[in-house]
Design brief:
Helix content is 22%, strand content 35%. By secondary structure, it is of the alpha/beta class. A 6-stranded mixed sheet has the order 5-4-3-6-7-8. Helix 2 links the parallel strand 3 and strand 4. Helix 1 crosses helix 2. It is globular. It starts with 6 loop residues before the first strand and ends with a strand. The structure holds inosinic acid. The site of inosinic acid has 14 residues, from strand 6, helix 3 and strand 9.
Length: 181
């Protein structure tokens, strides 16, 4: 870890440097190597979940050197009729994923509800395999049983911004990850 520490303000919250870019890139490179090793013959379709995963996806894909395709989806939140309240709907996946190996590329798994819903939705489209690559996971907040195949970093429960992640729409452009103080 670098000694360098910066404090930033976004709206009403203050954040300090938590994971510098160099440390992030090291772990992203490790994940890419795991994917290169596991999926060299699978021609996987990487599905980047916008907006948060855009920066992770870019750096990950620069290090993935096997034949593959990349697509992008958004999750639209709406008030569902189910007792759980908010559910999320997949928008924008135009590819036919029948018989394909799909790797979801996500910024962070917090409660895991978003990811679980996404995996279930993709499974209805008859893929061969659905894998998860996430930049971050907050293991102590996980509420559902999820197989996280590729994890760059595990972090505590605190709220973070940067490297794609936002606070109220701001902070996605920062190259380092910051934690709330
Ligand atoms: P989950 O459904 O609780 O796992 O929530 C996942 C989503 O919540 C992520 O895709 C992020 O958009 C958002 N999220 C969770 N924790 C953080 C955080 O610490 N900073 C910014 N966004 C977060």
């Amino acid at each position: 870890m670098s000694e360098y520490m910066e404090v930033i303000q976004i709206k009403d919250k203050r954040f300090k440097t938590f994971i510098p870019e160099a440390d992030i890139l090291k772990e992203v490179g490790r994940v890419a190597n795991e994917i290169n090793r596991d999926l060299s013959d699978a021609n996987p379709l990487f599905v980047c979940v916008l907006n948060g995963a855009f920066m992770f996806t870019a750096d990950l894909m620069k290090n993935v050197n096997i034949p593959c395709e990349i697509s992008f989806v958004k999750l639209a939140s709406y008030e569902g009729t189910s007792s759980t309240g908010k559910v999320k709907e997949l928008v924008g996946l135009s590819e036919d994923i029948t018989g394909r190996t799909v790797v979801i590329v996500e910024d962070i798994v917090d409660t895991g509800l978003t990811m679980k819903r996404l995996v279930e939705t993709l499974r209805t489209k008859n893929p061969k395999d659905v894998r998860i690559a996430t930049l971050l996971v907050k293991p102590d907040k996980l509420q559902v049983n999820l197989d996280l195949d590729y994890v760059a970093m595990k972090i505590p429960n605190d709220f973070i911004v940067g490297y794609g992640l936002d606070y109220d729409g701001l902070g996605r452009n920062f190259r380092d990850i910051y934690t709330v103080i």
